[in-house]
C-alpha cells in the first residue's frame, strides 16, 4: 500500500470517527430532550396517562463494531410505586442489596 493511500485511509477514518462522535452526541441530546418533554407531560397528566416509551443511546462495544459505533434503543417502561400489589421491590432487582436492608414483605 502506498503512503498516499495510507494517508487517505487515516483521513477518512478520522473523519468517520469524528462524525460518529458528533452523531452520538446529537442522539444523546435528542434523547435528553425527549425525557424533559415526557417529564413536562407527566407533570400535567394523571399517572394512568403517562407514556411508557423510553429511549437511550448506547455505545456499541462489540469486538467487531466500528470505533465510535452506537445504537439508539427505544423501549417500553413500567411505572411502579415500589409497592406493587402490597409488596416491596423484587429481591432479584435488589440482589446487590443485603437482605437486612430490604424492606419487610407484609
Distance between the termini: 72 Å
- Can you tell me the overall shape? elongated
Unreliable stretches (pLDDT < 50, length at least 5) are: 88-106
Structural class by sheet pairing and helices = alpha+beta
Q: Please, could you describe this protein's structure?
A:
This protein is α+β, with helices and mostly antiparallel strands. The chain has one domain. 40% of the residues lie in helices and 13% in strands. It is built from 1 helix and 2 strands, in the order H-E-E. It has one helix at residues 3-44; strands at 53-59, 70-76. Strands 1-2 form a two-stranded antiparallel sheet. The longest helix has 42 residues, at 3-44. The protein is elongated and about 65 Å long.
For this entry, give a set of tags.
106 residues; alpha+beta; two-stranded antiparallel ribbon; elongated
Sum this structure up briefly.
The chain has 1 helix and 2 strands. By secondary structure, the chain is an alpha+beta fold. It has one domain (3-79).
